[in-house]
Amino acid sequence: MSRSSAAQLMPLAGDVTTGWCMECTGRVLWKIENNPGYKVQSVLSRTEKPTFDTNAQLRQRADADR
To answer: Whole-angstrom Cα distance, residue 51 to residue 17?
Structure first.
């Protein structure tokens, strides 16, 4: 999430998305209707990890840029 997108969130939600969520893979902030955000830590099994590695392309691009 870009800083400009995070700035449109409530201050606490913006802090969570640019801080806590960025500290570890699989962390997200779930917003459901008018409820406050929920911090969620996703954990993939060994079988799921290769299939659902959503950061694989980002790592490949970073390696190509070096």
So the answer is: 24
